[in-house]
Amino acid sequence: MATFKILENMFEFSQYLGFLLFLTVLTIGFWLMFFLVGFVSYWIGGATWESYKEKRAKKKQQQQSV
Fold it and tell me: Which of 4-13, 40-49, 50-59 has the lowest average pLDDT?
């Protein structure tokens, strides 16, 4: 029967804090990217829709003045 020694103090406290900091930055980055992708796509869609409405109104105005 094999006996395994349980590793005590596998990581030092500073390494543990570094790992927690890494996870925090990674999580913040993920949610920031998630928010920005949604916001930028909403922004581009709104700008495209407004441009379309302006062109449509300009075309309608030109047809009425002719």
Answer: 4-13
